[in-house]
Amino acid sequence: MAKLTQEVQAFVVQQLACFHTPSEVAAAVSEMFGVEIGRQQTWKYSPANNPELAPKWRALFDTTRAAFIADIDSIPIAHRVVRLRKLNRLVDQAEAKQQPALVAQLLRQAAEEAGGVLTNRREMTGAGGGPLVEIYSPKVSLPDNGRDPIGTSPGRRGTSTTGSGGDRGNIER
User: From CA 55, how far away is CA 32, in angstroms rounded?
Assistant: First the structure.
């Protein structure tokens, strides 16, 4: 197990706080600092995995994680405009290559992206946008009046309510 400098330790903590896996962090440390470390060694710098992590690394992890989560604006693909422009470029390329199936798929994706046009999402609200009011409807059971249910009396055996078919449904084999 390699002895890590403060700089490398801080890098490991920050990378883990940005949701990188221990394997990815170990590879990045090897590439950036020339120090070979294993997944297990990076794993111990996560507060979730190591309750005995030093308070300074725990604080660095928490501040880095909060900043990372709050900084969604720095990720271009998180913005609808960027995604639509990229889809537009892909549609142009697919049209140039005469790929109509891909064009149709990309156009559908762009329509969904532009405003949920093709989604099954439905918002259910009551009057004036308020909550739905539950209506109580009791279950009613009718008393037995001695008659057979429709279609089971002896004179109507095998008849269908659709008006066609005769005894076709009751053929015994």
Answer: 25
